Structures are given as structure tokens and as C-alpha cells.
Amino acid sequence: MMMNLQQILAKASSQLKLNNIKSFKLDSELLLAKTLDVSREEVLLNLNKKISQSDIKKYNYYLNLRNQYKPMAHIFKYKFFWKYKFFVNKDVLIPRPETELIIEQILKILPKKSKKNILEIGTGSGCIAISLIRERPNCRIVAIDKSLKAIKVAKKNAEIHQVGKKVNFLNIDVDKYFGNKYDIIVSNPPYIKKSDLLSLDKDVKFYEPKIALSGGFSGLETFFKIIKKCNKLLKNNGMLFLEIGEKQGKELRKNLKLNGFNQIKIYKDLSGKDRCLVSTKNH
Ligand code: GLN
Asked: In the CATH scheme, what is the code of domain 83-281?
């Protein structure tokens, strides 16, 4: 007997659920939509339709990847962030919705025609730099990353979003970078504590680059390096925007004060956790 979409979805989602995949229902629907090359809505409006043997085979292939915890963004090869769709692979952190907070905060202080000089440290997929330049096209942005593979992904995304000539992507470690003085520096550095790496979700742990996640023994090591360097790279009254871990605000305030920063504000993400730190340098 041929199965219909409803039956195969029920089977697929219960399998994903058994593997503790939290978004089991949504994922089973999205993967079926991908299999049939239609939208998720179309799947849900045609639950009585039959599925062919060859589509079942294709669907099982995608389900199998997901059951091994491969992130949806890797199966689809893209992830939406801000207003755009970004190419992603295993060489970059998958853009997170909470990182959009940093974009919101920067846009708040930049008028539409602003011509500020911006540096992004650890650009990864390029999602922050590219979203910013699309919103504030008269700014100048340099985006650096110590991973050459990440820079390749970021450049590809810049091409996709037609800003290849507007953002200057450089493969360099922040320690070795001696650029201009900037008005704004932004970074979402690796900030997971070494001892927490093992307890990350399997999707993250097995598939996302450690280099983009691990903040050393304390989780704060990359921040300390960046803050010290930003003291030199920022203009007086320049601003630093950091994505931070939920329990890192206190330590970071201390370190920022020691390095000539003040007016430190911390904003919470949608789940009520400290996530975005904004600070001004003046001394
Ligand atoms: N928020 C990310 C996570 O929890 C970590 C991002 C980072 O280290 N910059 O997986």
C-alpha cells in the first residue's frame, strides 16, 4: 500500500523525536518539502497525496542525516539571518537568531547615511558585516577572520548579496592586525567555556567548528584579547559591540573598565539572557 504525506510525516517525526531532536515536527515537514521541491505550506495542504518510492528514498536520505544530528542549515546549505539568506557549511558558525540583536543595536546609533568606519573581528559566514553594509551602504567595513575557510564562505556570501566590493574581508588573526582607527568594532567571538563544550547540543558539538565556539578555559579568553586590542584600534569615543554569553557580563565589565572603556550596557536576547554588550572607549 502506498503511503500518503501524513503517514510518512508521522513516521519521520516520531523517529526524529526518538533521537531527542527538539524541532522534530518542523524538521520532518521541512525535509519533506525539500524532498518534493515544494514549500512547507504545500506539504501541509496536501497531506492526502501519495508519495512515490523514489521520493521516499530521497526523504530517507535527508532524515538519516538529521537523525545523525546534522544541522538543518547544513542539510539545506543556508540559514536566514536578519533579512538575508546566507550560505553556510561546516567551516563557519551557523548564524543564530540572537545575534540579530547586535545588528539592531548598531543600527540604532547609525543614521541611514552614516559613513562610519567599522571593523568586524571573527566574521565567520560574514552575516554581521553583510547585513550591516546592506543597511548602511555608505559605511566602510573591514571584516577579519583567522580562518581562511571562513573567509572564503564570507566572500561567497558577499558575492551573493552583491556587496563583494563593499566589505573588505581579510584572513588574519586579530593579534596581527594593525589597521586604521575605527568608529565601531563588532564581534561575536567564540565564548563557550572549555568545560561546557561537551554538553553542547549534538548538532553543535558534532558539526560546528570548535574554532568558532571555544573561548578557552574560562570562555573569556578571546574577549580579553579583543578588548585589549580594541583599546588601540578604536577612535576616542568609538564603540565596541560584543555578543556575550549569558553569565559573562560581570567579568567583562571589569575587564573593559581596566582597558579604558566605560558606559557599558548589556542587552538581553528574546529569551531574557544577557547577550549584547555595548561599550564606549574614552580616555
Ligand atoms: N551562542 C552560541 C551557542 O550557544 C555560541 C556562539 C559563540 O561562541 N560565539 O552555540
From this structure: 3.40.50.150
User: Is any atom of ligand 1 closer than 6 Å to the C-beta of 279?
Assistant: no
Its CATH class, for the domain covering 5-68, is mainly alpha
Strands, E assignment, the chain: 78-81, 84-87, 117-121, 140-145, 167-171, 182-187, 234-243, 261-268, 274-281
- Cβ of 124 closer than 6 Å to ligand 1, yes or no, is no
Radius of gyration in angstroms for the set of CA atoms belonging to the chain, rounded to a whole number: 21
The domain limits of the chain are: 5-68, 83-281
Q: How far is the CA of 23 from the centre of ligand 1 (A)?
A: 19
Identify whether the C-beta of residue 147 lies closer than 8 Å to the C-beta of residue 209.
yes
As beta bridge partners, residue 268 has 274
Query: Which tens digits make up the pLDDT trace of 147-168?
Result: 999 999 999 999 999 999 999 9
Q: How far is the CA of 62 from the centre of ligand 1 (A)?
A: 25
Q: What is the pLDDT of residues 104-126, one digit of tens each?
A: 999 999 999 999 999 999 999 99
pLDDT digits (tens, 9 = 90+) for 169-179: 999 999 999 98
In sequence order, the 6+-apart residues with CB closer than 8 A to the CB of 56 are 3, 8
pLDDT digits (tens, 9 = 90+) for 180-233: 899 999 999 999 999 999 999 999 999 999 999 999 999 999 999 999 999 999
Task: Report how far residue 34's alpha carbon sits from residue 29's, in angstroms, rounded to the nearest whole number.
Answer: 9
Task: Answer for the pair 123, 73: CB distance below 8 angstroms, yes or no.
Answer: no
- In ligand 1, which atom is closest to the CA atom of 212? 8
